[in-house]
Amino acid sequence: KVEEGETPPQGAARELREESGLEVSPSQLRFCGQLTYAYDSRPKLMQVHVFDVCEGWQGEPVESEEMRPVWVKEGALPLSDMWADDEHWLPQYLRGDLSVPF
User: Fold this and answer.
1) 11 in Cβ contact with 3 (< 8 Å)
2) What is the C-alpha end-to-end distance of the chain, expressed in Å?
3) Own/partner pairs for 91-99, CB < 8 Å, 24+ apart?
4) E-assigned strands of the chain?
5) Cα separation of 12 and 6, whole Å?
6) For the chain, does the N or the C end have fewer beta carbons within 10 angstroms?
């Protein structure tokens, strides 16, 4: 979640640090796209900014309340353990079949 006064890249860098222990400068993040979700239980649409970083990050992933990091091969993504929508865009993005930004 982007906090008041943050840009989406700043929020993404902070969330990455808080949830995984990895450090990255907001300027090292590449904007990949934006996803919009509507939930019956939420009055407002939820907007998710997607970023990636291929180099320049520091640290080692650590487990947190939000995640238990594991390395998997692209063809073995545990999609059933991820957000329901991930199966609709993440494999395409990782294969390079999804134009960036999406």
Assistant:
1) yes
2) 19
3) 93/32, 93/50, 98/33
4) 30-37, 46-52
5) 9
6) N
**Does residue 53 carry a pLDDT above 90?**
yes
Are the C-beta atoms of 21 and 62 separated by less than 8 Å? yes
Residue type, 64: S
What the block records as the tokens of 6 is: 């943050």
Q: What is the dihedral of CA 7, 37, 94, 88, to 10 degrees?
A: 180
Candidates 36, 33, 38; CA nearest to 47 is: 36
Query: What is the pLDDT, as a whole number, of residue 1?
Result: 86
Both tokens of residue 83? 């957000």
Q: Which amino acid is at 7?
A: T
Mean local confidence (pLDDT), 48-61: 94
30: β partners: 52
